[in-house]
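Dear colleagues,

As part of the handover before I leave the project, I'm documenting each prediction I ran so the next person doesn't have to rerun anything. This entry is a single chain, and its sequence is reproduced below.
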Amino acid sequence: METSVNLLLVILAFFFMEFVAWFTHKYVMHGFMWFFHRDHHIRDGRKIEWNDIFALIFATPSILLIYFGVMNPNSYLLSIGIGIMLYGFAYFMFHDVYVHQRVPVLKNFSNRYLRATVKAHLEHHNPHAEYNFGFLVAPMKYYREEFRKRKSGK
């Protein structure tokens, strides 16, 4: 039973982080901490950005939960920390590696989900576009577009 609860906590923490990332991106990164995030919207090929400070901010709760979950044997804290860590890894692989090619791998990997989510993210970087703030999940209109292309044979 405890294993099931721990697995559920990992999954819930992972999916909850998408909301946390969306909220933080919209209200913190594009709000009072814009001065750190602004350089991310200037795509000039740099490998290090001020925006990277957010990786440390997001990693801190995961590190602390894993540490305290191991040091005071508490499988719930550990599970939540692992869920947050897995989200961070997925975010890094999708956003930094796949979308922005900050680490030039995964160049020729594509499917409808990835194409739609990448399009939404890249439109977010367009200063004249309507902003969307998701990371691993984009607004439904992008997925509908991608599925319509497939049906129409484009």
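The chain has a mean pLDDT of 86. The chain has one domain: 2-152.

All the best with the project,
I.
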